[in-house]
Write a structure and sequence with these properties.
There is one protein chain. The chain is mostly helical and 118 residues long. Helices cover 91% and strands 0% of the residues. The protein is built from 3 helices and no strands. The model has no long low-confidence stretch (mean pLDDT 88). Keywords: Coiled coil, Cytoplasm, Cytoskeleton. Pfam families: ASD2. GO terms for molecular function: actin filament binding.
Length: 118
């Protein structure tokens, strides 16, 4: 459960950071200084939060190894391999799901922008 939460947090923060970076890159010459400063501050905060989340993921990874070692004492090899595969696939699938959700959001935003420009 913790692994799911940390992976979701990492994906959420990286997606938000990417959106803020895109917003900064698309600022026009008439954008107020306040807006620019606010976006830069948001970017700084998100980058710091992302680093904290990475440290948290490392901690969860270390704890996962301890749990895996304990589980290994009680499971036969075939069941242990199934458990290890499950843990790896769960994270990968969560990551893939979030990436797809982000791509859908990006596509919807692009579509909205195109419709507004027409």
């Amino acid at each position: 459960g913790d692994l799911d939460k940390v992976v979701n947090l990492l994906l959420s923060l990286s997606g938000r950071l990417a959106r803020v970076e895109n917003a900064l890159n698309s600022l026009g010459p008439h954008t107020s200084a306040e807006d620019k400063v606010a976006l830069r501050e948001k970017k700084r905060q998100l980058a710091a939060q992302l680093e904290d989340a990475k440290e948290l993921k490392e901690h969860v990874g270390r704890r996962e190894k301890v749990v895996g070692a304990m589980v290994a004492r009680y499971l036969r090899d075939e069941h242990l391999q199934d458990y290890q595969h499950f843990v790896k696939m769960k994270s990968a699938l969560i990551t893939e799901q979030r990436e797809l959700e982000e791509k859908i959001k990006l596509g919807q935003e692009q579509l909205r922008c195109l419709q507004e420009s027409l």
